[in-house]
Amino acid sequence: MTKINVTVDGVSYHDDVEPRTLLVHYLREQVGKVGTVVGCDTSNCGACTVDLDGLSVKSCTVLAVQADGSEVTTVEGLAGTDGLDPMQQAFHDNHALQCGFCTPGMIMAARDLLRHNPHPSEEEIREGIEGNLCRCTGYQNIVRAVQAAAGAAAGAAAGAGAAS
Amino acid sequence: MTSLQDRPRTEFEDNDQHPVGHGRMLRKEDPRFIRGKGRYVDDLQLPGMLHLAILRAPMAHARLVSIDTSAAQAHPKVKLVVTGAMLAEKGLAWMPTLSNDVQAVLVTDKVRFQGQEVAFVVAEDRYSARDALELIDVEYDVLPAVVDVRTALDPSSPVIRDDLDGKTDNHCFDWETGDAAATEAVFAKAEVVVSQDMVYPRVHPAPMETCGAVADYDSIDGQLTLYCTTQAPHAHRTLYAIVAGLPEHKIRIRAGDIGGGFGNKVPIYPGYVCAIVASLLTGKPVKWVEDRSENLTSTSFARDYVMRGEIAATKDGKILAVRTNVLADHGAFNGQAAPVKYPAGFFGVFTGSYDLQAAYAKQTAVYTNKAPGGVAYACSFRITEAVYLVERLVDCLADELKMDPVALRIKNFIQPDQFPYTTKTGWIYDSGNYEATMREAMRIADYDGLRREQAEKRERGELMGIGISFFTEAVGAGPRKDMDILGLGMADGCELRVHPTGKAVVRVSCMSQGQGHETTFAQIIAEEIGIPPADIQVVNGDTDQTPFGLGTYGSRSTPVSGAAAALVARKVRDKARIIASGMLEVSVADLDWDKGSFHVKGDPTKSVTIQDIAMRAHGAGDLPEGVEGGLEAQICYNPENLTYPNGAYICVVDVDPGTAVVKVRRFVAVDDCGTRINPMIIEGQVHGGLADGVGMALMEMIAFDEDGNCLGGSLMDYLIPTALEVPDWETGATVTPSPHHPIGAKGVGESATVGSPPAVVNAVIDALTPFGVRHADMPLTPSRVWDAMQGHPHPPI
């Protein structure tokens, strides 16, 4: 067992983990953040995507011990007391989810995409979420949601208020 | 930031297509899913819960010589190790399948497919359980594997199912439909006959969430609760009762949220049974969640039909007859989920959307050393295969006759005034206006413009293809006199209860896996009884809470449970009318219903709302003579027929002449599913199904090598489309209601998966016209398209 200190969704945790424990299992089974899910065993699907110190990572491919001293944000840390994150809102408004299983990872990946490219083209959005598989939506409404969230963010930055 | 509550209500937008209730209503499911607050099976943590892992066979066919579990049992965190021999002592080593065959829960005699369940371990955590699997020592005597369905019936092939009495070959069943002699007569006289061999390769539904369960047996109450990824919770409960000998009222199945099903989560898998056994033996909750490779290698595959199709026509393009001979690979156990009297599912609708003189299909199903399954992945009980066959054949005929494939189809469509139309294989199509649907797709695509563009590109040596698919689906199984799953009639229940304050709860027997039932069933009730959808809670997936019914697959929720919902609401409304007559002191006949309220005929000011009536029904005041208190009803709906949605799909591809890479540039999908309950949700269903179709046509295959090793056992090899492989979908609709459905709605969930693969393949073949290619088998990967361009297309194994 190894001691780690990790901040998850703004709360600090001090835990013992086995060195082999995957970050996704640590988040789900020790911290209780079951919003982040597992969809494969080969790092392809991206359902486990979280933010690790500002980087988008597939948490099935990171050891919990590697997150020692880090700050992790999961989908459960996005909505504040004042409401939803614009990306969450955009997914709802654009019917960008069905079974909801890829949604947490997809939202995290899409937020990361906009962080690096606030005004992506459709092609750039599709490339930006290429690491995240979805079996329900055929992706189009996800692309629409990311476009809407980008527009909302642009609107907010211009002082034009929230999404219309 | 905005919150959901702050947003303007959108329920009343876009009523243009007469959607039931409230049009493009946003989903009631979303708020929890977008926050990571869904409740999927692996999210569950129960006090003292143990973890189960399954040891799987490393080869396809082998006699079990010995198993030594002593080292695994000695592992400090292991609580239990169970082998097939131990299950056999309890009579649980084999279980019935949904096709009345049997399937091994754990291997007792021999391994019959790679990835088959051999033993299981229960440990304190999932890592230790996996560790302990490595400590089990199994000795196998390897046998030759039966892999190729074409040679599986050769007398020299090893017999896979020697567990079955007197079994001396790998024959599973024979099936036929239509009139062989009449069809032969038409073919004998036909001016044009085109024959084509084609393979619909084995693929896998691969839902994002794999299969899993938490079994929780309470030995004090004798109560088993099974949290489980099941699309058919009630059917599962009954089967567990029969198999395990537990009383049915002491079994509770809870499906929770399911991360996609696509038919993968209809059967009962050995893992579920193992989890139940483990909980019975340990007295603790036991969780089993398979990983992706286990899902792909051992749970229900889809397709795997080798088909020889023939189509007969006149020289001017009147299609006369279709016939086919099918070899179906069912794997090692016939685990196909289909109504009992339909061993080949609804493949009988292979006559498609065309008015024929004769049709005949013959099928031989065989066992091979592969995982069981067959019916899955939005196939509507083998209609994917049926539609692929006929839509490829029509294109082959168009090629032979040098006719435009759209013109050929339009010339042969069943006409609107022919409905209800009885096909030559006995299916009674309910309604359709095929040419209108086809022309809508052509309008959206600018079909003539596309053909002009293609001609110009061909001049320049560019490979552009336009593929057509026009399909008729058959969904909503089904009439109980014909259709049952292991003796359980395919009816569905619905229960509606209106609370005193006018809010309501509707309990359905179907089980959403993302299709939006929590939203759309509220809309159906809202339309019928005038309670806003926001005030209606939809409950599904808990067998203690919901009425009996057969679950969600085969796009049957709207046809069967949707009908039940409408009718149960009408039943409640009828009672509400009687209560209203008492409140307004007029006779029942003097009341008019005006969505949400009754008023006295000729005097709209004298009215009571459904909410007023609900309070009266539960209140202290008088009710009319003979009326019980409360406002609720239940129903079990037995459909009189299936619904037959249809669609016209046009796919445009570009093929790189240098690399043979296929790019789907456009995809136009016009679907007609009758009354559209929620157009937004229908579009999402169609988008998802189209992505499935592109995946199957271009990327996906579960292949095997000659030793029976599965070559598609992970997402590294089993390729499913990302956002980059699919285009922006262009959808449209026509509305031809189902005359026999209470709200005229047909199913639609699987239409796009059924209809799109032939459109993509037809487009690729069309693009390859300069190379003289008439057919190439899926998946049309670059190497396979390249081979076709070189003149030697090869079928997949």
Q: Please tell me the overall pLDDT of chain B.
A: 95
CATH class of the largest domain in chain A: Alpha Beta
What's the CATH architecture name of the largest domain in chain A? Roll
Q: Strand count, sense and closure of the main sheet of chain A?
A: 5 strands, mixed
The average pLDDT value of chain A, as a whole number, equals 94
- Assembly status: heterodimer
Q: Please, could you describe this protein's structure?
A:
The complex is a heterodimer of chains A (164) and B (797). Chain A is of the alpha+beta class. Chain A has two domains: 2-77, Ubiquitin-like (UB roll) (Roll), CATH 3.10.20; 86-157, Orthogonal Bundle (DNA polymerase, domain 1), CATH 1.10.150. In chain A, 34% of the residues lie in helices and 15% in strands. Chain A has five helices and five strands, in the order ββαβββαααα. Chain A has a five-stranded mixed β-sheet, sandwiched between helices. In chain A, a hairpin with a 2-residue loop joins strand 3 (49-52) and strand 4. In chain A, helix 2 crosses helix 5. Chain B contains 18 helices and 34 strands. Chain B has a seven-stranded mixed β-sheet, with helices on both faces. In chain B, strands 9-18-17-16-10 form a five-stranded mixed β-sheet, with helices on both faces. In chain B, strands 22-32-33-34 form a four-stranded mixed β-sheet, with helices on both faces. Mean pLDDT of chain B is 95; it is low at 1-19. At the A-B interface, helix 1, helix 2, helix 3, helix 4 and helix 5 of A face helix 1 and helix 16 of B.
